[in-house]
């Protein structure tokens, strides 16, 4: 267990006995100590705020708390020293034996300190959600990578995670897409674009449609536009032949998505597909329901929901359009259906949507409307995990030099190629196959880590050189740190040394490493609460640098005492376990060697 979790309950008791039971639930404000100010491990800051509330002197309150702590035998077993500093801070130095024992425990029980959440939840999580026959761009890449990491973390904490890949597989463009597919032929090279460059397929269909729209006299281009429109109606009406064509389109798009997912190593499968089309049959009913209850009204021919809390420039409510004047349903209508489905059918507790930040207003408006309509159970909370934009080195939206969007497969391919360069420089003895595996792990790991190590809602600059660097806060640096420990352990095994069952801590650098290791469980729990994978990335980076400091100070294989060596090997083993496990929660593989 980490120190803060271990101390929290005892501090609540101490506060209660110092100030009275009504203060038991006050936040004790326990933080890691600022190492620049004190050699203590943990700081407790509650006394100042509490003193103000009860009208006492803060140092007096602090000493009453310390007295109560000293009277608690369990506290005295985990603490060496409690000291009052400044206006009433408590500086706590943990018992080194306690730290060592905790580290030994989380190594021996295999938990690494990660415990199941106190209350397990059902958590539908919407992520990736690309559009069929359109490019899957770096924005979708980021929601895929962040969402996948969150799904892994939440599962590790014991929650029931229900992945929902809300692909854009329905709507008016499908008329022209199906007609284009019929024209070029299902086995043509043009149709094959659906699996290699879907955006090109989409653009070709769009160009045909737009040209036909502009043609004079109308219809001179073979009525492509008229046929496309008719196809939309047939599709929405459930015409079997049209649905069969639509299915062909879907199959090929799925093949494309799965190619990307396979290369990325994300956990999404076909079973997680829950695209817009799945809600098609519910949309008319939702509109009727909302209209009959007066929640939606017809305005300029469109069925709209006006909500006082969402106003435009003129202070008039902006409409959420749920049925267009041509009778078609939109993105918002489908999202009324998703939130209802996830709340009622899936019984979601937290319902997580990992989607680009620009869609925040859409979600807020849709959920507020859904709430008014009773489409969200009071026990369910929808959450928008906002994904910031990915920018090019020029600070603008990420594009190729010619201004086109970057094809995701090309981008990932380049990451792998560049990583191959990094790998071949460092390890000459690897076979080509091994090298290819490592290049994929490092290249993809670098892209993922770059996505995950900045907070999900901030923008970041896509820069291959930076993300593939072997130093600094990068995926390859952490992978390298792990492989280095692997090789220490391998050399130890060759020499017949094995890790100790009990860790002992002599040097400061050993103690600092062990303390850092104890934090892992709390960090994973915090990511499960805050839905912020960058906290885990930041922790792993700190762990790797703490390990480096330990390794510089404390010889492992060359330790002059057998017990010290065995204990240090155990610290190495635990560090490796946490690094590999933490990276896997980020969806990043650790190479055997690199
Ligand atoms: N397909 C959408 C897009 O590419 C994202 C869908 C997100 N999920 C949702 N339930 N709206 O922008």
Automatic annotation (TrEMBL):
GO molecular function annotations of the record: arginine-tRNA ligase activity; ATP binding
Motif 'HIGH' region location, chain numbering: 130-140
Chemical reaction(s) catalysed: tRNA(Arg) + L-arginine + ATP = L-arginyl-tRNA(Arg) + AMP + diphosphate
A GO BP entry: arginyl-tRNA aminoacylation
Record SMART domains: Arg_tRNA_synt_N (SM01016), DALR_1 (SM00836)
InterPro entries cross-referenced by the UniProt entry: aa-tRNA-synth_I_CS, Arg-tRNA-ligase, Arg-tRNA-synth_N, Arg-tRNA-synth_N_sf, ArgRS_core, DALR_anticod-bd, Rossmann-like_a/b/a_fold, tRNAsynth_Ia_anticodon-bd
Localization terms from the record: Cytoplasm
EC identifiers of the protein: 6.1.1.19
GO cellular component, one term: cytoplasm
Keyword Aminoacyl-tRNA synthetase: yes
Pfam families for the chain: Arg_tRNA_synt_N (PF03485), DALR_1 (PF05746), tRNA-synt_1d (PF00750)
Main localization, broad class: cytoplasm
Record keywords, A-Z: Aminoacyl-tRNA synthetase, ATP-binding, Cytoplasm, Ligase, Nucleotide-binding, Protein biosynthesis
Homology family: Belongs to the class-I aminoacyl-tRNA synthetase family.
Subunit composition and interactions: Monomer.
Protein name: Arginine--tRNA ligase
High-level lineage: Bacteria, Bacillati, Actinomycetota, Actinomycetes, Micrococcales
Gene field: argS
């Amino acid at each position: 267990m980490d120190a803060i979790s271990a101390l929290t309950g005892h501090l609540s008791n101490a506060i209660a006995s110092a100030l009275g039971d009504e203060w038991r639930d006050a936040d004790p404000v326990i933080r890691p100590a600022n190492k620049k100010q004190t050699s203590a491990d943990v700081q407790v800051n509650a006394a100042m705020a509490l003193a103000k509330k009860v009208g006492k002197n803060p140092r007096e309150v602090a000493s009453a708390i310390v007295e109560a702590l000293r009277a608690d035998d369990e506290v005295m077993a985990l603490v060496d020293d409690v000291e009052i500093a400044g206006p009433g801070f408590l500086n706590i130095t943990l018992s080194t034996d306690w730290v060592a024992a905790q580290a030994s425990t989380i190594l021996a029980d295999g938990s690494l300190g990660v415990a199941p959440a106190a209350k397990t939840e059902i958590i539908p999580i919407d992520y990736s959600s690309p559009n069929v026959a359109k490019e899957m761009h770096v924005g979708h890449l980021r929601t895929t990578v962040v969402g996948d990491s969150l799904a892994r973390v939440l599962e590790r904490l014991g929650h029931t995670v229900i992945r929902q890949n809300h692909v854009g597989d329905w709507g008016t463009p499908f008329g022209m897409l199906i007609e284009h597919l019929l024209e070029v032929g299902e086995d043509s090279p043009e149709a094959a674009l659906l699996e290699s460059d879907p955006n090109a397929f989409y653009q070709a269909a769009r160009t045909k449609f737009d040209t036909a729209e502009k043609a004079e006299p109308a219809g001179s281009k073979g009525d492509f536009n008229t046929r496309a429109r008719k196809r939309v109606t047939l599709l929405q009406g459930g015409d079997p032949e049209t649905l069969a064509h639509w299915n062909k389109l879907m199959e090929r798009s799925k093949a494309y998505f799965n190619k990307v997912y396979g290369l990325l190593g994300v956990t999404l499968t076909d079973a997680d597909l829950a695209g817009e089309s799945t809600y098609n049959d519910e949309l008319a009913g939702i509109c009727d329901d909302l209209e009959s209850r007066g929640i939606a009204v017809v305005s300029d021919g469109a069925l709209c929901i006006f909500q006082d809390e969402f106003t435009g420039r003129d202070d008039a409510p902006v409409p959420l359009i749920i049925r267009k004047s041509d009778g078609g349903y939109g993105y918002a209508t489908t999202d009324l259906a998703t939130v209802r489905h996830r709340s009622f059918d899936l019984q979601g507790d937290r319902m997580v949507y990992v989607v680009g930040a620009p869609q925040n207003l859409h979600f807020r408006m849709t959920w507020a409307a859904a709430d008014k309509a009773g489409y969200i159970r009071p026990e369910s909370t929808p959450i928008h995990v906002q994904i910031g934009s990915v920018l090019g080195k020029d600070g603008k939206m990420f594009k190729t030099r010619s201004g086109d969007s970057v094809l995701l497969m090309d981008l990932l391919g380049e990451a792998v190629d560049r990583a191959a360069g990094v790998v071949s420089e460092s390890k000459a003895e690897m076979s080509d196959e091994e090298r290819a595996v490592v290049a994929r792990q490092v290249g993809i790991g670098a892209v993922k880590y770059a996505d995950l190590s900045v907070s999900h809602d901030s923008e970041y600059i896509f820069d291959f050189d930076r993300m593939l660097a072997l130093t600094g806060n990068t995926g390859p640096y952490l992978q390298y740190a792990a492989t280095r420990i692997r090789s220490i352990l391998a050399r130890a095994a060759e020499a017949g040394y094995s890790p100790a069952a009990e860790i002992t801590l002599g040097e400061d650098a050993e103690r600092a490493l062990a303390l850092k290791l104890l934090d892992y469980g709390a960090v994973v729990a915090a990511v499960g609460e805050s839905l912020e994978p960058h906290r885990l990335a930041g922790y792993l980076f700190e762990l790797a640098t703490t390990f480096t400091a330990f390794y510089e100070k404390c010889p492992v294989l060359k330790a002059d005492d057998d017990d010290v060596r065995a204990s240090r090997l155990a610290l190495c083993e635990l560090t490796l376990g946490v690094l590999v496990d933490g990276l896997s929660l980020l969806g990043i593989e650790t190479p055997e060697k690199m």
